[in-house]
Amino acid sequence: MRGAGAGIGIISNPASGHNRDHFPTLRRELDRCPGALHRVTERAADVPAVLREFADAGVGLLVINGGDGPASNILGQLLEHEPFARQPLVTLLPAGTANMNAGDVGVRGSLRRAVGRFRRWAEDRSRPAERLVRHLMRVTLDDDATPFYGMFLGAGAVVHGTEYAHREIHARGLRDDFSLFLGTLRTAWGVVRGEEAFTAPTRLGLSLDGHAAGAADTLILAVSTLDRLAFGMRPFWGTGAGPLRVTLIEQHAPRFLPTFLSIIAGRPSRRARAGGDYRSHNARELELALAGELNLDGELLTVAQRARLTASPPLVFLRP
Fold first, then answer.
1. C-beta of residue 265 within 8 angstroms of C-beta of residue 258
2. What are the CA-CA distances from residue 58 to residues 46, 84, 133, 208, 239 (Å)?
3. Where would you tag: which of 65, 165, 196, 220 has the fewest CB atoms within 10 A of its CB?
4. How many helices (DSSP H) and strands (DSSP E) are in the chain?
5. What is the Cα–Cα distance from 279 to 273, expressed in whole angstroms?
6. Phi then psi for 140, rounded to 5 degrees?
7. How many Å apart are CA 97 and CA 174, to the nearest integer?
8. Total domain count for the chain?
9. pLDDT, tens digit (0-9, with 9 covering 90-100), for 122-168
């Protein structure tokens, strides 16, 4: 397996959710991984130098011990600047608050268990390890060429739910799939009850692979390159080529609650599949015309007029 016999480079973000609880212990555990270079980065600006060091050292497996946002930033640096002659394999450890990306392609279990599982694999690389191929989204805003990278993007009620989760759920120390489940449940309940904090629409124009797909007052927009979202959600049913998976629900969509529940269960109802107020597509490039906020891997981005999303080249994730 490519990378299995090469060096390991580990980047840790000590400020990520679960790392804050036990980082000294986790750091010692990761430092003992055989054949590994372990670097702790306090700032995003520290990452490029570490990646260059790993490339010079012949690292074939990049391990990221951080949350969704920091992990996507590191992978964005990897894709944008290409410090490696050949892209390394990537392993994600679930060190953040939500860990949606790690839930799909990362090492399973709590952070402590995931670190232990990874260490055992590093000590004996004949152990089985799954390979998963995923893309990232490259996002640019308005006339700014500076890119952002992520694996999940949302608008409308997704942003409102994120703000609620930061304020009411994560602030109480709840994390991982359970926190995302509570946030999703509260957001859906707020929509059903017509609470303005959750139902304020986002006027959004959509273009898929260069073809206009209409404009609408949007209740929910979800875009991802992941196969599985939080707590097993698979809310995409579009067909055709393209690693960007897009689902849009318009404001005042009929029979919202039963249709929404069928969508997040991965079994969209006939109403959802009929199109109209519920739509799902696959694409390679997506343009959004809007003025408002987007949630990219848990971080809020402000858009004045438009956002452009393109699929990155694929990366291979290794999950021991």
1. no
2. 19, 9, 22, 39, 40
3. 196
4. 10, 17
5. 7
6. -120, 150
7. 8
8. 2
9. 999 999 999 999 999 999 999 998 999 999 999 998 888 777 766 66
Of 232, 254, 236, 253, nearest in space to 244 by CA: 236
Residue 140 lies in a domain: no
Q: Two tokens at 248?
A: 């849009």
Compute the distance between CA of residue 215 and CA of residue 205 in angstroms, rounded to an integer. Answer: 4
Q: How many CB atoms within 10 Å of residue 133?
A: 10
Contact 93, 8 (CB under 8 A): no
| Gap between the Cα atoms of 251 and 135, Å rounded | 30
Q: Say whether both 120 and 158 belong to one domain.
A: no
Are residues 166 and 181 in contact, defined by beta-carbon separation less than 8 angstroms? no
124 and 214 assigned to the same domain = no
Pairing of strands 285-289, 202-208: antiparallel
Sheet holding 7-12, edge to edge: 36-40, 7-12, 59-66, 89-94, 315-319, 130-134
C-alpha dihedral (263, 265, 270, 272), degrees to nearest 10: 0
Q: Which residue has the tokens 């393109």?
A: 310
CATH number reported for the structural domain that contains residue 238 in this entry? 2.60.200
| pLDDT of amino acid 1 | 41
Residues 169 and 278 in one domain: yes
pLDDT digits (tens, 9 = 90+) for 181-232: 777 778 888 888 888 777 888 899 999 999 998 888 999 999 999 999 987 8
Q: Determine the structural domain holding residue 216 and report its residue range.
A: 152-296
Q: Which two tokens stand for residue 93?
A: 């450890």
| CA–CA dist 105, 92 (Å, integer) | 7
Task: Give the residue from 85, 34, 95 showing the smallest Cα distance to 64.
Answer: 95
| Cα–Cα distances in angstroms (integers) from residue 17 to residues 93, 99, 167, 213, 310, in the given order | 12, 9, 15, 38, 29
CB 282 within 8 A of CB 241: yes
